[in-house]
Amino acid sequence: MGRGAVDKPDLVRESALGGRLVLWEESARDGAQGKTLMSADFRVRLAREQGRMFGGDGPRHVVFAAGFPAVCQEEFDATRRVALEAAGSVSPAAVCRATTADVQQACEAVRGASNARVMIVVPASDEMADAMVHQPAQVALADAVSLVRQARALGVFADVCFADAPRADVDVLAAAATALTAAGAGVIVVADTTGDLLVQRCGELFRQLTERVGADVVLASHLHNDLGLGLANTLAAVGAGVRVVSSSWLGVAERSGMVATEQLLFLLAHRTAELVGETDLWHTAPDLALIPAIARQVSAEIGLPLTVTTPIVGTGVGTISTGTPFVRPKAFQPYDPAVLGIEPTVVLTHLASARVLRAVAERVGVTLDRAETTAALAWVKAEAFSRNEAVIPDEDFVRFVSGLRTAAGAVRAGDPVVLPNPFPLTSVIAATTAEVVNKAKGRPADQPVALWVAEDERWAEFAEAVDLDETTRRFARELLVRERLTLLLPLLPGRVPDWARQSTRDGHVLVFGACWAPLRPVLDGVWPLHVSSANLTGSRPAASPAEARAMFAPEVHVLDALAGAPVMGRAATTTLRVGRDRALAHARDGAQDRGHESPDAYITYLRATYSDVR
Known about the structure:
Layout: H1 11-17, E1 22-25, H2 40-52, H3 58-61, E2 62-67, H4 73-85, E3 91-97, H5 100-110, E4 117-123, H6 126-132, H7 137-153, E5 157-163, H8 170-183, E6 185-192, H9 199-212, E7 219-223, H10 230-239, E8 244-247, H11 261-270, H12 272-276, H13 291-302, E9 319-320, H14 323-327, E10 345-346, H15 354-363, H16 370-387, H17 394-412, E11 417-419, E12 428-431, H18 434-441, E13 450-452, H19 456-463, H20 470-481, E14 486-490, E15 504-505, E16 508-512, H21 520-523, E17 530-533, H22 545-551, E18 557-558, E19 575-579, E20 583-588, H23 599-609
Helix pairs in contact: 2-4, 2-13, 4-5, 7-8, 8-9, 9-10
C-alpha cells in the first residue's frame, strides 16, 4: 500500500519539498528525557502558541511531537489531547518504537486529527540495533517498511527516525530512506542520537545522503548538544539542503539537550540570506516577537530558569548596564532587540556610570542633583557587593533615594537620624545638637557627644583649635577617615569653639570623621553635627536598620540602608586619645582593635601603617 492510503495532502512534505522550513518541536517528547514533564494542558497551549507564530500556516511549519504514548496511559492521553485540541495550529505527532503494537497505539493517539503523524524510531547503526532490537540494522530498517504501510493504512502520516545515523553506513541509510519513502514515509529523520557529531562531519553526512537519495525523499535533522554543537550542526544540515529541523524550546532534551527552538528559529528568520542565501523559507514568516513570551512560559512549566546569558530569550537580552554601550548601544549588539518585541532597558549594577544612573532615575521618575547622583552611584556599587548580586532592582533604588532625602530633611530640621556605617561598624545616631542625640538614646542631656567632622573644609577650620603639631593633625585625619576611629583630640587652652563645647571633656574634643560616600547629601553643609552609637543606654548598638527601628522611638528617622555585609560581627568604633608627636593611647575597645592581640598591638600597627604621613 503506497502513499495514496492517506487521502489528504502531507503539508509537511509539501513545505519541505518546496524549500520551506519545518520545525519539528521536541520539548514535550525528547524534553521528557531531559528530566522534565509538561502537563497535557501545557502541551496543548504550547502547540497552539508555536503554531500561532506562523499565522494560519502553523501546520505547514510546525510538527509538534506531542508525546510517546507507550510510556503510560497519562502520556497517551496527553498526546491525544494535543492531537485533538491543537491540530489546527500544528501538525501533531506521536512517537513510537518500531513494533506493530507501538505503531498501532501511536496512530490511535492521533487518530482523527488533521495533519496527524507518527514518528517510528528505528536503529540505523549496528551498535544501536543490537541495543534496541537485538538484530542487525539492515534488518530493522527493512522491517520498518511494513510499519510505515501500517500507519498509512490507518490514515496517519508516517515518518521514520534513523537513530544513531552517524555510525551507520551512508549507502545503507540512503537505500533505506528511498525504500521507506516509496512505501509512504513522509520524512526521514536523521538523528545524532549520541550528540557526537562535529560540524564538518555533520554537513558531510547530510550532503552525502542528499546525493544518494531520490528527489522525493525529505530528510530531517535531529541533533543533540552534548558537545555544545547542536545549533552549529543543525545550521550545517540546513546548509546542506535539509528543510525539516528538530529542536526543543530552551534546548531541553536527553542528556545535555539539543538545539534550542528559540535560537534556531530566530537565526533562520532573522539572518536567512547569510545562512541559506536568497531564498524564501516561509509560507508565513514567523512572528519573532512571540519568542520571549513562549520561552518564559516553557521555563515556568518545566522549572528551567532563563539566565542572563541564555541566548535570544535570556534576561540579559536588551539590557545595558555600563557607560559605553549606553552611549552607543547599536555598536554593542548583534541585532535590535525590538525584533523580539524587547524594549532595551538600562539596569543598575556595580558597573553603572553616572549616565546610566541618571537614565534609570529618569525611567522611574526621579530627578537627582549632582550630589545625589554621586551618592546614589556609590550606594549602588556598595549595595551590589554587599548583596553579592549585580542587579539592583528599581524599587530598591527609589527607596534609597527617598530615604536619603528624608534623612537629609530630618537632620536639617534638627531631628535625630540613624545612619549606617561601613562594615564592621554599627550604625550611628546623629543630630545637630547633643541634646537631641542624648534624648533619643535616653541618657542625660548634657553628656558629651562626638563631633562629626566629615567635610575636609570643616576639618581645616576645626584643626586650628586642636593642640597638635601639623604632622600629628594629618595623622589624626588619616585615622579618622581611613580607620574610621573615634578620637579624643586636645584643644588649645581657651580656644574651645562654641560648636565644640557639647563634644568636649577634660580639655579634649571627641571626634568622628568617617563618612560612607552615599551619606554625603545628608551630611554636607550641616554644622555642627553630633554623633553617637545607635543604641539606647544599656543596649548594644544597632547593626542594621531593622534593629534600629525596633530600638528607637518612631520620631527617630532610620535610613533604610546597610553599608556592607554582613549584619553579624559589627561593633562600635574604637576610641583613641591623640597627643603631640603622634602619641596614641587606647581609650575604648571597638571594632577596629578587636582583631589584634592587644590595644598596644593595634597602636603599633597604626604607627607602622601610617608611618609615611608627615
